[in-house]
Amino acid sequence: MRVEIWSDIACPWCYIGKARFAEGLSRFEHRDEVEVVFRSFELDPRGAKGVTAPVVEMLAKKYGRTLDEARGMEEHVAATARAEGLAYSTEGRLHGNTFDIHRLLHLAAARGRQEELLDLAFRANFADGAGVYDHGTLLRLAVEAGLDEAEAREVLADDSAYADAVRADEREAAELGANAVPFFVLDRRYGISGGQPAEVFTQALQQAWAGREVPEVSPAGDACEPDGACAVPERS
Amino acid sequence: MRVEIWSDIACPWCYIGKARFAEGLSRFEHRDEVEVVFRSFELDPRGAKGVTAPVVEMLAKKYGRTLDEARGMEEHVAATARAEGLAYSTEGRLHGNTFDIHRLLHLAAARGRQEELLDLAFRANFADGAGVYDHGTLLRLAVEAGLDEAEAREVLADDSAYADAVRADEREAAELGANAVPFFVLDRRYGISGGQPAEVFTQALQQAWAGREVPEVSPAGDACEPDGACAVPERS
């Protein structure tokens, strides 16, 4: 089975949802036959690159709250994250454009290091106050994830590198009906929206597993069966 | 959209079906958004490695026909292949165990050269009379496909390299309901069995595309929407 997870590094429910999904997956008996792929979704695609603002200011503005109330909102998310065993610092977290870390995550996918980089990026953004917005930090994370430094530097320097891959992921999210993240898709058959409790993921995995036989859309054509028996064309 | 194609190199309908699928895909308007992945399926997994027999002898035995009749069967398949623009030689084609070429195809997938190697392997087996059964030929094909020679040699020498990947593909085929090849799976939602005419593939691609929105299996959980609006936890 294949699970695709759309998320943004700037999304705390993605950070929390990833941990809850991992917990749900660990309780699923066929977990060793599940391939997990991470896909790009930018919460703020129109935000200027490299321009950041404190998250609490962004929250206060967006929800029409005071800075203290916005801080309270962050504290609530932090408490939820900590309940999942995730480090979360509410001090000085920044909000900004995540296009470059998504491009880098596609390079990491091509090199078999995607989840390593994703975990480091979440941690940098939510636990370490490092953010994922300046190239120095991104390069450090890339190297820590096992990527080649020169290659990562090249991708960061070239705005077009993996840009199409990020946009293709975002287009696919829209086509599949995902308009918020995290969004989990099981075998392109079932969707799960949001950072659900672990048991919701386990149940969905079981449901998708049970119904995975694919119906055929047309009568079978000429084919070969095990032991080498191939359909023989009709003699004319 | 993602299309997975289960096939065996020893299967002429897989060789023909791949060309027909490519033709059907080329007529599909969203072809640039289709990712194609090739998966392993052995027709003769119990055949001893390195032991081969002429295909016509195998066919005669399997169908209880004379060698001449078996040759006629091969000629019919060859004519079908040639009608698709594929080279096909009926002289001296061998049948055998394809585990090693499947292992090598998984290495090629990891290096982004899977389809290159698959096309070369089909050609070696059906057009050039080279077969895909001895390591010398396999190594030559691997290098021609752009793989590193030392790495390919290592994989061939180590029976366990990518063995689990081949078996996982075969287990998945069984779970999805595929018991003959070629077998095409569109977004894990629709199956197509056999080397169908190109228009069957085009229609199936259109049908799968139209119905690709994934139903959600549970009410949405906490999530972040574009422009940074994240669900705020209920205050206790």
TrEMBL record, chains A, B:
Domain DSBA-like thioredoxin per the UniProt entry, residue ranges: 3-206
Which stretches of sequence are listed as region Disordered? 217-236
Q: Name the Pfam families on file.
A: DSBA
Q: Identify the stretch annotated as signal peptide in this record.
A: none
Could you identify this protein by its name? DsbA family oxidoreductase
